[in-house]
Amino acid sequence: MIVQLFSAISCSLFVLGNLLFTLFLLTLFLQTRYPLCCTYQYIDYGIPFVYLSDIALLLFLLAVAVNPSRRESFWRWLSGRRELYLAAFLFCLAAGISNIGALSKVAAWYRWFKIIELFLVSALAGWWISDDQKRKMRVWLIMGWGLLAPCLIAIGEFILGRSLGFQFLGEWRFNVRTPGISTFFWRGKTWLRPYSTFPHPNVLGGILSLIIPAIYLFRKQLLAGWAVRFLVVILAATLVLTFSRTAWISCFTLTFLGYVYLKHKPQNWPKYLLIFLLVSLLVFFLPSPVRERLLSVLSTDSLSLVRRWELAKFAFGLIKKRPLFGVGCNQFPFWMEKYGRISGTGPNWQPVHNLWLLITAENGLVGFLVFVGFFFRLVCSLLRRAGTEQVYLLIILFGFLMTSFWDHYWWTSQEGMMFLGVVLGFSLVFARSYG
């Protein structure tokens, strides 16, 4: 009787665990959050928050921990990926050392725990996906449906020029006239770039630029019907409205690479490079606000580019000052506030808009080399297996690489870090799928 009861409880926890991880994927892009302390902090990056997705992940972890068969399965899977926890241990060790001299201890150790969570998500996502073959493809669709509500909010914000009142989902309070809000000018009118539940339109755009190509690449395995087509239309429309240039370029490049691979199995890359360049010329026939926004990438007097360059110079200065272990996790904005200056009106205490410079400035050359080594080994493992799914993942990782040189949200925002964790976990599965 006791054995039967224990078996029933274990089965229930297994089903509950699946539901909880699905809930984590669905809430991953909501910014529903609760401050732990330091709400007085005027630099938002320094306030520790607990997110709804954190709670779902913790419950899933507990469901796995109390289920003996699931717990053993997880450890068995993880033991075959020693590079993951070795990289996690070394990076977190280096980051802990860098935090000793942090200007804001609370912000530093909060980001340190979030980095641990990033590697934990990689491990849990990889194990959960590998435990059931159908989940390998379904995970992209679940995250896509999780983006539906934020995308509908974004479309509503663009039309009305203000927030819609969904603060319980993590929406900010703003309108098109709020100082410092991101906008664009077209036909004599200022238009809002929608934020939805994200800290900036670029974050929403960057995630969409990877999700849309992923759904396109895996569409056959997803058995995409009219509902999935409707979802992709909403996601694509929202991507356009974010007016994120790097996200547009990334999405177009990844989709093009996927199309070439799927349709032609390329053997003559110069030919397809020419096609890519010719298609790129279509930018001159796009609607004027989109065309002007894309062409402004080439504008050297753009305030956005000036600020990025000034932040990069400050990052190089921090690297020179503390080359081995950096200034500490999540400390770049605090050093900017104390010692930095940036063009434009108002305070701009933000991280450098380059993921690799940010990691090097905050965690030093030691942290940089550990993370790059892990990423490089993962890419090489995917290249060695050279199956269709591996190529798909390489395309997605290339998109991550493209956007990482122009922004920091994969490392500083909850949505960016958790999404990166899922992608890394997915890649770990396919890096070991053959051989």
TrEMBL record:
The chain crosses the membrane at residues 7-30, 42-64, 84-103, 109-128, 140-160, 198-218, 223-241, 247-262, 269-286, 355-379, 391-411, 417-434. This is O-antigen ligase-related domain-containing protein. Pfam families: Wzy_C. It comes from the Bacteria. It is found in: Membrane. The keyword Zinc does not apply. Keywords: Membrane, Transmembrane, Transmembrane helix. GO terms for cellular component: membrane. Residues 230-372 form the O-antigen ligase-related domain. It is a multi-pass membrane protein.
